[in-house]
Every structure is written in structure tokens, then in C-alpha cells.
Amino acid sequence: MEFTKSLIKGKLIKRYKRFFTDVKLDNEVVVAHCPNTGSMKGLLDENNEVYLSKNNDPKRKLKYGLELIKAHKNLVGVNTHMANKIVNHGLNNNLIKELKNSDLIKPEVFFNKETRFDFLVEKNKQKSFVEVKNVTLFRDKKTAEFPDAITTRGSKHLLTLIDAIKKGYKSYLLYLVQIENMENFKIAKDIDSEYYKNYLIAIKAGVNFLAYRCKITTKEIKIEKKLKIIND
């Protein structure tokens, strides 16, 4: 996914009330919308380099939006609204080898009255649900982790993916790692032990787990490389 306009470089001052970030641009301080309601653990150090998008729509209260943070020398894509767009691009351009050459790619499909998965794909009459989780946590130089906070919604999705298998679908959970230079992925079981327990149940039930790293620049973000999933 290409950014439609050039991003603006700044320095992070602070994030607050989940949706707001103060950013220093040259000699002024602006308030930017934070499109990530997660904990953003490890990313919010003061003076971290950040990149903002600008929107001059008069209906918008905030003209700037936070897109990238540079943390520990790695660019990280923090706009969770971009995740499905990146995966949609990856599916349509055969960047996810397990889901290449699909006959149908349909976003935002209801499985039941309560749950909507991010994608339904079909190949050779086999239908598969794909749920996407955006990953921004890393606590060492090469390993990305999920989740960065307790996620009851994430556990619910795991159990519903199991239900989909029982109804004849294939199920995939794709961890989209929007962090440069990662080589591995693992579940942060110390952060959410319940999610880890449900993850292990889902593996045994046949849910397919994938982790793909993105190539990140100030011009575009796209799927680049499959990562090794570590189950320890």
C-alpha cells in the first residue's frame, strides 16, 4: 500500500487518551490522531522519530495522523486501519504463498451473527476464512510478538476460527508484522496467558497460523517475507 501523500517527519512528545499524540514538527507542536488503540508497548519513548500523514479535509478535527514510529532503529507501522489494506494487496498480488492464486478474495465477511472475519478466500472450491492481527511489539532485535496487551477479542477469534473448521472451512490467522528487520514471531504468553492457551488449542484443532513481515518505507508498506513462528 502506497501512502497517497508524502509523510511528515517529527519527534514524539507523548501519546494520551489513546487517540491523541503530541508531535514536534520543526518549531511547532501539533496534535495528531493516533489510529491505534492498543498499548503500543515499547514504541512511545519521548523523542522517537515519527512520521505523520496530513489531511486538509475541513470536516476533520485533527489534520495529522500518526503512521510510523521509529523505535530501536526499526520503523514500525502503527496505523491499524492499514493492516487489512496491506493484506488485501498481498492477497491480490500473491505475496502470501499459502493463499496464492485464489479464485475469490472477499473482505469483511460474516461467519455468524457475532463474528465477521477479515477475509473469505476461495480456491478450487475450498473456502477459507482469514483473520488478520496487526503486530507492533518486539522486545528483542529479531522477534516480533503478539499481543501487546490482554485481548479477549483475540481469544474469541481463535475459538471462532475453530468453529469455522467444524463447518467445513479452512481457517487462517495471519500475524501482520509491521516491524522492520524481524526474522521470528511468537506469542507473548507472559502478557496474555489465556490467549496463549487458546492459541495452542487452535493449533491442535487445525487453524493455520502465518506470520509475515512488511517492507516499510515512508513511501509504502507491503508484505515482504514469511517469518518463522516459534512455539516454546
Describe the model:
The structure is a single chain. With 232 residues, the chain is α/β, with parallel strands linked by helices. It has 2 domains: 8-77, OB fold (Dihydrolipoamide Acetyltransferase, E2P); 80-229, 3-Layer(aba) Sandwich (Trna Endonuclease, Chain: A, domain 1). The chain has helices at residues 83-92, 152-166, 193-205, and strands at residues 8-16, 20-25, 28-33, 49-54, 64-71, 74-77, 104-110, 116-123, 126-135, 137-138, 143-146, 170-177, 184-187, 208-216, 221-226, 228-229. The strands form 3 sheets. A 6-stranded mixed beta sheet has the order 7-8-9-12-14-15. It is globular and about 60 Å long.
Beta-strand percentage range: 35-45%
Q: What is the SS-derived class?
A: alpha/beta
The sequence of SSEs as H and E is EEEEEEHEEEEEHEEHEEE
- Percentage of residues in helical conformation: 10-25%
Highest-level CATH class of the largest domain: Alpha Beta
Morphology? globular
Average pLDDT, all residues:
96
Integer count of domains: 2
Strand order of the largest sheet: 7-8-9-12-14-15
Radius of gyration: 18 Å
Q: Return residue spans where pLDDT drops below 50 for at least 5 consecutive residues.
A: none
Most strands sheet: 6 strands, mixed
Query: How many E strands?
Result: 16
